[in-house]
Amino acid sequence: MPRFPSLILLTLLGALLAAGISAALAGASVAEYGTLLRDSALVANPGGAEMRRLAAGTTVEVHGRQDLWLLVTAPGADAGTRGWTRLTAVRLGGAAGAAGASTANAPSESGFARFSRSITGLLGGLRGRETRTAHATIGIRGLTPTELRTAHHDAAALATVAGLRASREEAELFASAGGLEARVVGELAVPAVGDLR
Amino acid sequence: MSPRLTLARALRVATLLLAGLLAMPAAAFDFGNLIDKVKEADVSRIVDVGKRLVDATREMSEVEEVQLGGDLAGRLLGAMPPLADPQAQTYVNRLGRWLTLQTSRPDLPWHFAIVQSDSLGAFATPGGYVFVTTGLVALMRDESELAGVLAHEISHVVERHHVHAVMSKARAGLARDVVADIAADYTKGNPMVTQAVLEGGMNVYASGLDQEDEFAADRAGAVIAARAGYDPFGLLMLLNTLDALDPAEPRAALLFATHPDTRERIEQLAAASATLDGDYASLLADPARFERARAAITGMP
Q1: B268 partner at 20 to 30 Å CA-CA among A86, A150, B190, B290?
Q2: Using CA atoms, how far apart are residues B257 and B42, in angstroms rounded to an integer?
Q3: What pLDDT, in 10s, does the model give residues A28-61?
Q4: Exposure string (b/e) for B225-260, b if CB count within 10 Å is 16 or more?
């Protein structure tokens, strides 16, 4: 009866495909959120004219970034309105996974979506809200100052690390493969008090 | 003038001279002017004491720095072993080495390693050892954030922040003994000096660098990343992620305790970076390579 195994195989393949698409859609639908730390302007373009004012505490969905500006979707009466706000005015991750926020405009594979898909759970875990990541929160703790002060020299580990050096040529090939080119960039000055915020 | 008066005067002047020497940073040292003021005293005696202090505060040579860095790296690895993943280690070494080529010290023996720890942190030791924990990599969005962290640590090495902090702590521990040349005695293996230097060194990692050194490393790290072609705001984005964590999160406790307030770092770095702009992000042709590396490092898809 060769037809039955074929049907079963096709059914299984179909189920797997459906599960994959479903997982991909689920991943793409999760975006990153942030909370405004202070009253902020929502502008049409980075550095552009103010479209509306957002109050401190407002949750926004983040879709991308350009330099020091975040592209966000504002909630409220005109929910879905996209605009830009200053990165320093937003605490990212503050509302990761918030229910009810619009995701209709979320790009399917933006850097933010990819990030959220993979580490929203971890942030949740770090906050003690979720345990679905590979890192369980129970029993995990950070290094303590005492552990550092009393650590013993590990000669074998140091020898391993000593064998890991990359040559200048390997580094340049790595950069080239990644599309990276050296640039001329000046030093940054210590900001004046008046430049903050 | 009687010999007793001469000796008493010499001791008084020597005390003043020593106080002046101890209060001055090595870079601002002006031994000649001080000598001019004590011409009538027992100059040879004072010069001898002064020279010993000059030696004790001199800048470490690069050879001494690399030895110190290796010893401290060995201790750090005793607390955080290197991840047993050659591909991931090769990745971080090539990335890190590319960053170092944009600095004033490209020829140091640079070593990079992913170390196994859920703690969120990165560490540098003198001479060019740079470690980043698996826990911190798990929080990163893309390669520019890893580059930003590595560049921050690289700038600590380039500016010798740890060397200065370690030597300062070692000097404090050895003040009564007035060791002639701490760096030289350390390199020769003087047990008392070695103990003071290594204890001082590990105390630096446990208690942190000077806060201004951290702000400076944030700025310099952004510049190194930008010079290497990366989006210079990667570190800023990772700082924002860290700022969203619960302040009591145990995995971030050491990081938070040894660095300035995260929000303050964000504000300072953003204000300093206002002149850095341009389409840096699009320069990265292969974003998937970071995702592959992070998956291997963290065991997360």
Answers
A1: B290
A2: 48
A3: 335 789 999 999 999 999 989 999 999 999 999 9
A4: bbbbbbbbbbbbbbbbbbbbbeeebbbbbbbbebbb
Report the pLDDT value the prediction gives residue B108, as an integer from 0 to 100: 97
Walking along chain B (301 residues) 10 residues at a time, the average pLDDT comes out as 48 50 46 52 55 63 94 96 96 98 97 97 96 97 96 97 89 69 86 87 92 96 95 94 92 94 95 79 78 92 70
Q: Is the ipTM here above 0.85? A: no
**By C-alpha distance, which of B73, B78, B25 is closest to B53?**
B25
- Secondary structure class of A63 (helix, strand, coil): strand
Chain B partners within 8 Å of A65 (Cβ): 233, 237, 281
CB neighbour burial string for B40-73, b if at least 16 within 10 angstroms, e if fewer: ebbeeebeeebeebbebbeebebebbbbbbbbbb
Structure tokens at A4: 């039955």
Position B89 scores a pLDDT of 98
Taking the C-alpha atoms of residue B182 and residue A156, their distance in angstroms, rounded to an integer, is 27
Question: In this complex, is the C-beta atom of B189 within 8 Å of any C-beta atom belonging to chain A?
Answer: no
Interface of A with B in 81-100 (CB under 8 A): 87-88, 90-94
Tokens coding A125: 């875990």
Domains and CATH numbers, chain A: 32-126 (2.30.30.40)
**Alpha carbon separation from B134 to A164, B100, B119, B207, B245 (Å, rounded):** 17, 21, 8, 21, 17
3-state secondary structure at position A19: helix
Q: Which of B89, B143, B207 sits opposite A145 (nearest CB)?
A: B207
Q: Which position has the token pair 């407002």?
A: A58
Residue A185 Cα, gap to closest chain B Cα (Å): 6
Predicted TM-score (pTM) of the model is: 0.77
Which amino acid does the sequence have at B47? Answer: V
